[in-house]
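Our collaborator T.R. sent over the components below with a one-line note: 'Predict the complex.' Nothing else. No constraints on interfaces, no templates requested, no preferences about which chain binds where. So this is a plain run: every listed entity goes in together, and whatever single assembly comes back becomes the starting point for the next discussion.
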Amino acid sequence: MSSLRALGSSLVVLATAAQAVAQSDEFGARATVKRDPHGESVAASDFRLEVGELRRVPRDRAQNLLTLAPGILLTNHGGEGHTASMYLRGFDAGEGEDIELRVDGIPLNEVSNHHGHGYADVTFLIPELVSQVRVLEGPFDPEQADFAVAGSAEFQLGLPEPGLASSVRLGKYGRRRWFLGYRPADERARTFAAVALERGDGFGPQRAFAQASAIGQYEAKLGAGTFLRTLAFVSAQRWDTAGVVRADDVAARRLPCADSADAQFFCTPDPNQGGSGARAQISTILERTRGPSYLRGQLFMSARQLRTRENYTGFTLDPRLDGGPQRGDLLDGRTDALTLGLRTIGRRRVTLFAREHDIEVGVYARHDRVSVVMDRVRRELDVPYLTDFDRGIAQTNVAAHARLDARLLARLRFMLGMRADAFAFQVVERSLPELDRIGPRLSRQTIDAYGFAFSPRGTLDLTLTPDLHALLSVGRGARSSDGAALSQSEAAPFARVTAAETGLAYGPWLGSVRLEARSSVFFTRVSRDLVFNPEQGRNEPVGASQRSGALLSVRARDTSWFDLLGSATYTRAHLPPPEAAVYELFRGPRLPFIPSWLVRGDAVVHHTLPWLAALRAYASLGVTYVGKRPLPLAQWAAPYSLIDLALGARYRFLELSASVTNLFDARYREAEFHHVSNFNPQAPRSMLPARHFSAGAPRQWMLTMSVYFDPADWGQES
Amino acid sequence: MKRSLLAILISVATACGAEDTPGRRVEGTLSFATANAGTRSWALANGWTLRLEEAVVLLGPLYLRPPKRASSALSALFSRAHAHSQTLVDGDVMGEYLTQVAFDVLGPELSTGMLVSEAGPLDRLSIVLDAPQAPDAQSRAHGYHAYARGEATRGTERVAFACGMRIDASAPDMPKNLEARRRVDNVTVASALPMDDGAHLRVWLHPERWFEFVSFDDFRGLDNPCAQEGSSFALQWYLGLRRPDAFRAELN
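Returned assembly:
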């Protein structure tokens, strides 16, 4: 109870602080702001995607909803419980290293995670609960925080239908899933509780998984325009990983699987890979809209545990001195993290010179306590034989932003913002050698570092017609440094990005059809790209890189007939030589693995059948085309297409659906890598980087039966 | 202004023909030969004259290394992977030939199979004196890493030897890292040409330098100084064999 009181007091303090900003009425005029402070686009590539009927397109993971936005490609090389790697507009954003991910304001990116600084696990999200995804491509909103280098994405949760919903899904390869969700009939969509349990054997060796997630949210209306919302989720999962295979091993059928092309394609070179994870997270938000002011205060806390066991190099890295056989490169990494943080926003609408303007100030802070360990595991008997690192990290990020939305002319709005971030690190290395060239020493050493980042961002928004806007945006973003890469008293470095884009946003009603179309051309330059150098044990600059391209996204919706969404993105990523001019977009060698063309289509046709009024049927189609990808050494990966299909019908409380993913059973390489490996410890050790890949999923089918009912109705009937 | 716009338009218009990813995979050939081929007798700097009747050495794998500090295009590339940087190793190898060869030092030039590499300047080689792999290599080298039979003479003095060299954990204790112990690093490559498609890499061996550290004075009167495993003769021979200048290479 005292904890609740403390939480409430904290929220009041936060809210008061935000309100103080919001109520500074220096311009002496008032107007009403929307509850959503960012109702207007920050950039041409600011996608606020209501999931709506598009949830019927087969997508087995909530993270896959990100592909509703153009230019996002997901690849998963780590198994069903492993979050997918993301590509966005020319960035290989890893598992979140270059994309800021949030769930209703709660940051998901994990600092200094053993798997990658910024690793963002989205596997716990239950897709039925995702009501909206906002993807902002590029760092153009001053509220975008650490990791928003390529952009950011935020999930909003809600259960659209009141009552009890339960579904059972059976699928190929032993896939079983049970979902149960409940939303009281007299509550808004943001009040719900849901649980999902799932398991499967996987589509090949070492691909079994099991996971459970529970998510609950309660939104209480405290008064006119005032809401208190608490969101909590708990999840746990375990999975096996097939990992990557060498392309030459597959071609020569050298892998320890059957001698067929398919068996080799889906094989695994190390049967001990996998992982597990768990999380508990809670957030409370106080949100108030009153007249011209809007304020929002949020506290969040999360406890997180992740373990991954991965072997990408076989028998290559064992630093044996005695000439004995390599013991194996399986890396057993663990992260335990605790995060506390707050996020507040105060926004005020003012009228000046007969036009309305908005002023916003926000404060963001998070403190992370992270413990990371990486052991190497011997293939024989599966026991650890060496600790690569064992460290504790405390990272604090305090940030503030200010934003002005001014309407200079009737048709011209400009947004100008500035974000300032301060990062403090304290890192304790716990597994250093106990002997150096001077003599004995402790295996422990502490370092601390500090850094600041300032990120100006701005947008010009020209209203051409009431439905057509032209936008021009420029912004800077930053990714903090991995604690592992810092030196004592170092001015903590950042990967800095400068991005610009211009485009059109068009959103008319054509009769009963709502059309939303956006197009843009974009350019991003990372002036001092920092990458981790394993030899030096720290981040080192590798020079500039730049990405440019164009995208188009069109969505047409008719509430009683269809929901169609299509997008196409063309991207080029290059390493420009130092003498290259800014306008030389495509000069210098290309960055590998970034597909040039990415096309995605989602289509749902649904209708209540005229001859059977209570029967609602639908058909959905998902199409993905990934164009050819540049590979190292001037080679190219073949393009591939995937088609997913679903059919379903609902009669009153009962819904049945069937879906097929990868309809034509295409064999494709979901992720490709290029590095040194050797999976045969008896063979001479190759030190030349070779091509590796993880196999994409083959055709799979799923049958789902769902029931919907509201216990309140039963009570009335009785 | 017009010039800038024109440059942008040209840049966009020529996008389709823009550059590929860095680096290029090339294939070349490799051969091993003895310097002064046909010679079986060498005058050593220590005053002795060496004559070999039989000499076989097992060579390989062989690694091609780019100039130091100028990292290869590949190393710049794979360090870009954010998530798995821990698993990545030094990219300081631009090419390799992994098959072990049993080279008859007194025989003709030996051409091997295809050499795979990244295109670019080649600075030096690392040659591994690995344990015998294939059965025929084992038999040709009498089960050793290297085998030599011959004699050293100085006036009327004569030291006959028939030695096999085994480089393993029980061998002389230097250096401690067995992998390093089996490797000959920094073999110079005499060529200004970069590694490219169709290039031929020839590795020259100087067997006389293998024995320049052998103190034949100490073995006078012995039947065979290598009769015992780990003898000082083998150690001195080993030191000579691992001299970088016991090998040299040229790229054509």
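Summary for T.R.: Residues 339 and 368 of chain A are 5 Å apart (CA to CA).
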